[in-house]
Every structure is written in C-alpha cells, then in structure tokens.
Amino acid sequence: MGAFVASLDRSIEDMRRLAELMLDELRAIESRDPDGLQQIVDAKRGLLARLENETAQQKRWIEAAGFGFTPDGLERFIQAHDQADQLGTRWSTLLDHTRRCDRLNSDNARLIERDQRRVAMTLRLLKGEDTGATYDPRGRAASSGQRGRTISQA
C-alpha cells in the first residue's frame, strides 16, 4: 500500500505543477508570447506523460486487488484498504487538482478561441467583407447588405 500512496503523492504533485503551467500558459497566451508558450507546451507534454504512467500503474494496482478502475471501484478500493485515511484524503486532493486543471484548460481554450475570432474578424475587415458587426437602433445585429471596401479602396 505504501507504493500506491507514494504514487498518489507523485500524481498530486504533478497535477499541482500542471496547474501552475496552465496559469503560465494563460499569461503567455494573453501576452502573445509564442516562444514562451512553446516552452510551456513542451513542459506540459512531459508532465502529462508522467501522469499517464502513474495513472496506468494505479489502475494495475487497483485491478490486481480485484476492483474496477471506475469511480465506484475506486471508492470500494479505498474503503477496503484505507488505513488512517491515507488514501481517501489523497484521492480527494488528486480529484480537486484534476478539476482545477480541467477548469484552467477550458479557460485557456476559450481565450484562444476568442483571439482566433478576433484575428478572423480583422482579416475579414481588411478584405472588405461585411462582418455583420453593426447594430440597428434597437441594438440588434444588422448587416449592411453590401460589400464593404478594402483598406486600399478606403
């Protein structure tokens, strides 16, 4: 059981570090730092590989003990083998870190999508395409119905 506890501790630390990297990633995205972003992506890739290996080992231990690697199976494994609340507390901490990383990942993805939309809108404006980004007196989106002028025509 000591090896399983140590594995959980490594996973917790790796997830904590992943959250830090995702915050760094957010700052790199916001500051439009492609070199910094690439370094963060490379660090995340290595960290995720370690997490996958730890998870695979944890799965083997749990299944070898006769439990499924499912939320129910994990709960039953913890109930059957937890001594002095070593497993339950660690598992709960790992889940908390995992949820935090999931939220950070979603936040970063939304930021990237927003920036992509902004770049696409700018390109459409530069090409003179109607963007539908004007509004009528009631505040509803209104299209001019005609093609705009390119920057060179303006």
UniProtKB/TrEMBL annotation:
Signal peptide: none annotated. Residues 140-154 have a biased composition (Low complexity). GO terms for biological process: bacterial-type flagellum assembly. Residues 130-154 are annotated as: Disordered. Keywords: Bacterial flagellum biogenesis. It comes from the Bacteria. InterPro entries: FlgN-like, FlgN-like_sf. Required for the efficient initiation of filament assembly. Belongs to the FlgN family. This is FlgN family protein. It comes from Allochromatium vinosum (strain ATCC 17899 / DSM 180 / NBRC 103801 / NCIMB 10441 / D).
